[in-house]
Amino acid sequence: MSSSTTDNYANQVAVVTGAASGIGRSLALQLAARGASLSLSDVDEVHLAETAAMCPTAHWAKVETAVLDVADRAAFQDYAESVQSSFGCVNMVFNNAGVALGADVVDMSWEDFDWLMGINFGGVVNGTKAFLPYLIASGDGHLVNTSSVFGLVGIPSQSAYNAAKFGVRGFTEALRQEMKISRHPVTVTCVHPGGVKTNIVNNARGVSDMGADTATIATMFNNIARTTPEKAASTILKGMDKKKPRVLIGADARGFDFVARVVGPRYQDISAPVSRAGYALARKRGIIK
């Protein structure tokens, strides 16, 4: 695929989960602007419809939506079959849907842990398994799974999120090798966004034992996140076009990747005191009560 024209995805069918807002919405808009037909899904029916209405469709393209809980394996399989039936093929799948949870292990409930793992890891596995046969059959498939900068390093109060995103990374990297070994015509990309200005933290569950509730953490996150969803989506599509195995989004993601590779496991000795110092400073400034 060349990115030199505005219709380089003409006659291509793209599937995007988590399309109601954030990176998913921006992916949908940019894919549509470049001529792709779209199947968009989310649990948020109202904002999903808004995304579909915003998509600039070419005369040959169409946009369909589906309310989907990506953690529901049977529903995901049914959805994949319906997309294949409706569009006749699937060329690109973006397993993008995700949620957030801030909680130390000692305080974290099993309910919250299972909720996050079902969406952030299970959703990627479900989407991959459901659509992979259709991507192979397309003869030119692209699978893009969203991990995180927290799939590169472990962060205090993010154990569940880390577990899911490290899981996405390992699952995706293994799958990429399987596709190459089997010579299946599917390129596989793992995406690691840093701080992106989306609603994921605003809708997070949990509380850290260091005193920050979800609303406070969301405020802190939104103050330091520098990458827009539009920029993130553009970076993802450029990486996919170049068939990159890994896409880092934002200077913070590149920084964490560098530290993890250069410092190795010793990064944990740096991270813990820095995190606690950050919370102490936030308390001093009245951000955390």
UniProtKB/TrEMBL annotation:
InterPro entries: KR_dom, NAD(P)-bd_dom_sf, Sc_DH/Rdtase_CS, SDR_fam. Transmembrane segments: none annotated. Keywords: Oxidoreductase. PROSITE patterns: ADH_SHORT (PS00061). Signal peptide: none annotated. Residues 12-197 form the Ketoreductase domain. It holds the Pfam family adh_short. It comes from the Bacteria. One of its GO terms (molecular function) is oxidoreductase activity. GO terms for cellular component: membrane. Belongs to the short-chain dehydrogenases/reductases (SDR) family. This is Short-subunit dehydrogenase. The lineage of its organism: Bacteria, Bacillati, Actinomycetota, Actinomycetes, Mycobacteriales.
